[in-house]
Design goal:
Radius of gyration: 30 Å
CATH class of the largest domain: Alpha Beta
Distance between the termini: 59 Å
Number of domains: 4
Structural class: alpha+beta
Number of helices: 16
CATH superfamily of the largest domain: Bira Bifunctional Protein, Domain 2
Bound molecules: aspartic acid
Length: 613
Amino acid sequence: MYRTHTCGELRIENKNETVTLAGWVQTVRKFGAITFVDIRDRYGITQLLFGEELNKQLDENPLGREFVLQATGIVNERSNKNKNIATGDVEINIQSFKILNKSEVPPFTIQDDTDGGDDLRMKYRFLDLRRNAVKRNLELRYAVNRSARNYLHENNFMDIETPFLIKSTPEGARDFVVPSRMNAGQFYALPQSPQTFKQLLMVSGYDRYYQIVKCFRDEDLRADRQPEFTQIDCEMSFVEQEDILNMFEGLIKRIFKDVKGIDYTEKVERMSWEEAMWQYGNDKPDIRFGMKICNLKFPQYIFPTKENISSLIESEFAVFNDAETVVAIAVPGCSEYSRKQTDELIEWVKRPQIGMKGLAFIKCNNDGTYKSSFDKFFTEEKLKAIATAAHAQQGDLILILAGTEERTRKAMSELRLEMGKRLGLRKENEFKLLWVLDFPLFEFALEDQDGGGAGRWVARHHPFTSPKPSDIHIMINNNPKVEDLDKYLEHPYANIKANAYDMVLNGNEIGGGSIRIFQRELQEKMFAALGMDKEEYQHKFGFLLGAFEYGAPPHGGIAFGFDRLCSILGGSESIRDFIAFPKNNSGRDVMLDAPSEINTKQFDELQIKLNLK
Ligand code: ASP
């Protein structure tokens, strides 16, 4: 037997017991004739005491950091107790020991505050994984996994594996492809998600499916994406949107409870996509704080139901006059910002990532006066009217952006988040869930995307998403062709709403799904709207269309980004910290040194000749 206990287990109650521990040497401290060794495993750290006799043996066989040690001895009460560790009341008076394996000096210290940089720790990830901080993240990941499985199991969901070597799935990214040796010249695609399989399982009658599953998307790795990532993927039959929302807010609340001990009893808030864009400039708003957008000027056809208040900003001021959109937020308590501080904010919005030309502001002074960066054009009376529209209080600083609709709204959304962060309103241990509903079914691709040609509709979610029942007629009765590319937003298709939903947590999209199309005719209409002819969609999705002819039930589902969910619950910005063996920002596994070249024999077997451009 290698060990009787783990290194995190022994307490004062074990006093006088003879025990054997096995683990890694964390530190060796020699004090004259005695030596203290801290031994570590997954469960904790225990102090070992090597007395005079054994010290001699240690001199002959010195211990180094990360040596694998087995040691037997008697549990003693420590005279100077360490309150910081669970085993801190005891130490083991060692009687015999054995070095099970030696270790090179590790390239960085295996401690909470390590001296290893990112790249080094990625290269030696197996050592980094020994560190507490990383271990805690993986423990949290496993806790989320277990909690999800328990909840789904209790609700009759069945975990069914789906294949990885498949034909393309349309989630909007590029596929990773795998050449087939047995079918030379042909390729599998790795699934971007199990979407079509889970729908087929519904046709097969497995009415509640789930899988915690790897998905593969060959995307340019923007910040914090991984080419392979994990989803909690679910699908249900005989459900409407309401059933799905209830079931899966239940799932997330259960995870909150099991993993964080949080009782999230209130109903999850809901907001339409349009409202999210209108109030927050963003389809995944962080609703932990207010600072909602005041829309002073906007294109009416994008928000047809909203009241236009642009008369408030009518003046000779060209910046507002020439803009398509003018939006404002009232930042609480910042009216006393100095020139330097407002200048810094102006520079902030001019950064290329934000891309604005400038920033206007109104100070709502505590004495009831108003002062703006465009005083020349506006009387105080008018400034006050704007402040009222923006729900600003005395002491607030109103920030105003003006420009083209899309860019300005996005910039304001970023500015709001930035100000929220600066004012400490995005609290790390506060969790706020939100359902965003009623997304547009289509997006318009002005640029050529994945070879599909410019100026066409693409599915905002994926092509299996059903339109809202009340909007199906718009799809049936209108030709998808957009005659005037500049006015695509005025095309009837731009207004079709999807029966889709996203779950948002603290400003991050953590899950998304939809009620699916389950009739062949509507699915064909959808493919046609996306610019596919019959031959193309038959070739790509004939199997699904065929299945729809054999009694497909109404169904819908959702998938949660498992890595992201873990990182938010763990209070980290980076999903990498929650993945045992992640890739770096260029999609490389630096430990394995992958991807890498393959040898000529492998190419020969595949009958492939490399001809790099
Ligand atoms: N397959 C979708 C995705 O990966 C999720 C869903 O619609 O269930 O985003």
